[in-house]
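Entry:
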Amino acid sequence: MRVCQMYEWLKVVHVLAVISWMAGLLYLPRLMVYHTAAAVGSEVDVTFKVMERRLLSAIMRPAALVSLLTGFGLIHVAGYGLADRWLLIKLVAVVLMFCAHGVLEKHSGELRRGQRLRSGRYFRVVNEVPTVLMIVIVIMVIVKPFS
């Protein structure tokens, strides 16, 4: 396979994985908004626990891993380096996206254990973090400012 073809296929897999991961990062906090209002041990509480667990284990974690691996593959094949300031900014935003993912994992565990430590309003605000990071990442990749 030619390097150009490998790069294009890596990009396809990367974009698909990022879309899947972002869907989860945007949907999970919305689930948590409603989960916080459910009575602990209720049928609705159990349903949200299942939905959140499946979203994390079947979609978000695998998609995040594939995004990371294919992203590094793209950087390697394209020959980009940290001297490319747009890439450095993108990577910082990606690290922050993984931090946001980790925070959601933590909150999911709290809800699973019946802890209601955060309000629905908190999760509405948290829901905006991946959106802002996504905007930064897309600008860095498409426009490549500072290059």
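The longest helix spans residues 43-78.
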